[in-house]
Amino acid sequence: IKACAANGKHVFCEKPIATELTETVEAINACNAAGVKLMTGLQRRFDPNFKRVQEAVVNKEVGEPIMIKLCSRDPSPPPFAYVKGGGGIFADMAVHDLDMTRYLAGSDPIDILAIGSCHIDKSIAELEGSEKFDTASCLVRYPNGVQAMIDVCRQSSFGYDQRAEVLGTKGMIQTDNVYPNTAKIFKSDFTGNADMPYDFFLSRYNEAYASETIAFCDSLVNDTPVPCTGEDGLVALIMAIAADKSAAENRWVTFQEVVQSVYVT
């Protein structure tokens, strides 16, 4: 990223921008100093289902938000080699959901309480920190008493299970899982969707990946701010690190606590 900035190139980077906060801040500063754009690939913000929930919050369709719920479960666990050194379940998986709570709440979070456990792949139980978890839950507190609840698991035998819900003072908006089609089948021993939810992330988020790429190109052509900034990626990483710390120390952790631990010259 710093090399691109030094050469005047705009940057699109998948999350995380870096695995350490100091390097993340350095990358953001380099782009700001060079006057180039930096967009973070948090693709769920561009998923039409999550986007519709966010629009309902912005437009006050359900009133003021009270409670946010997110569920994120993958079809099958990744191999041991992926988990080891991957940063743990909060940084490499739940980070999407942590970012989504902030996206839906429309404000910066205050603190977090997180727990984790291992149920599926017992081989990872020997790893350090949250790399030993394949299941985790988080409570995140936002201003005005808004609460966000997240549960993640590395295995969902029926495909991607990823849903969102916002309860407001005037109603609720909720998404369901995404299926290849809307067909339903009716038989003597089964009634329901004819096909299972998607089991591959490129299929599940195909439209989101296309939309975020178009959004980045639009910002370049029209010289407008990118919709998902380097700062958004930074806050998501701060949230993941705080969740990791909370699970390790079994206590609420303020995000300010994590921010104050970083010094960049």
Write up what this structure looks like.
Helix content is 36%, strand content 22%. The chain is an alpha+beta fold and 265 residues long.
Provide a brief overview of the structure:
By secondary structure, the chain is α+β, with helices and mostly antiparallel strands. Helices cover 36% and strands 22% of the residues. The chain starts with a helix and ends in a 6-residue tail after the last helix.
How large is the share of residues in beta strands? 15-25%
Our measurement of the CA-to-CA distance between the termini, rounded to an integer number of angstroms, reads 18 Å
What sequence of helices (H) and strands (E) makes up the elements?
HEHEHEHHHEEEEEEEHHHEH
Poorly predicted segments? none
Q: Share of helix among residues? A: 25-40%
Overall pLDDT level: 96
Number of DSSP strands?
A: 11
Radius of gyration computed on alpha carbons: 19 Å
> Largest sheet, if any?
7 strands, mixed
Features:
265 residues; alpha+beta; seven-stranded mixed β-sheet; 10 helices; 11 strands
Topology:
Blueprint: H1 2-6, E1 11-14, H2 21-34, E2 38-41, H3 48-58, E3 65-73, H4 80-83, H5 89-92, H6 95-105, E4 111-117, E5 135-141, E6 147-153, E7 161-168, E8 171-174, E9 184-186, E10 191-193, H7 201-204, H8 206-222, H9 230-249, E11 253-254, H10 255-259
Parallel strand pairs: 1-2, 3-6
Antiparallel strand pairs: 3-7, 4-5, 4-11, 5-6, 7-8, 9-10
